[in-house]
Amino acid sequence: MSTPGGPTAAVRWRSAMEAALYGPGGFYVRPGGPGPAGHFRTSVHASALYAGAVARLLRWVDAQLGHPPELDLVDVGAGRAELLAGVLAALDPETAARVRPYAVERAERPGGLDPRIRWSAQPPEGVTGLLFANEWLDNVPLDAAEDGAYVLVAPDGTESRGGPLEDADRAWLERWWPGGGRAEIGRTRDEAWAAATRTLERGLAVAVDYAHTRQARPPYGTLTGFRGGREVPPVPDGSCDVTAHVALDSCAGPDSVLLTQAEALTALGVSGARPPLALASSDPAAYVRALAAAGEAAELTSRSGLGAFGWLVQPVGVPSWPERMPQSPSRPRP
User: In this predicted model, what pLDDT tens digit does every residue of 257-267 receive, in sequence order?
Assistant: First the structure.
């Protein structure tokens, strides 16, 4: 007997992920759960510096748009809207008053959420501002393939060989993941990102995720699971997160830029440099705060950890990513 939210027979991975994550009783939509933060740690949860960096990016977009009377901030795959709350807290009052924050999430709206935040299962149309998707695409269901056939998966995670690939999936693999063997077909992520960015009328769309490119695809794929802060086998029964890294290069649209998180956050003013030792004598409390912030920044930008994440930046009617963002004013960090 399968757990509610999982498949009942061996099916393709795309169907298994959809049911396990988003079906009735699925991992992400089951009411009363702790949300994603209860099972894995993202950059949003690692440090408030991340939300501060997104706030600076939003202010840069705002300037490129000429400071419109309403500035959209759309968080796709918002979880419990922690990023939106952090960005709103980091913004100066004038900008915050113009921001229209949207949380895009298939789960129900959590209680106690800031009433300014609009909750929706789909991005709004006609977005003018910043559309930001932090670790969303890795949970968009996808199929796995091996040697020209789909991989099927049973409710207990046991895999078997399925039927031959459909033409569209075979064509995607030939272009983006050639070479045979085990592969994960990212066509559904391409389509999901294209649909999200079509809602952007003017501004910037950013996807941040575990990523790989055509030059260095993982030879055995990346499907895995997370539960309670631990990596576990990807069993599609609704009991754990099921995720796979993202081929961000295949998602990229016109004029897109691919960066590492280390590059992006450095441009946004996040630095792991230690504060000057003289500050310890002149203002010990400030030194301790600065030292803690430097440690958090180092975690966010570590090239062997979160800093290796990919940032896909897609402009619509604004300039592409500059080498360094202007340091716009924001609320001071407590």
Answer: 999 999 999 99
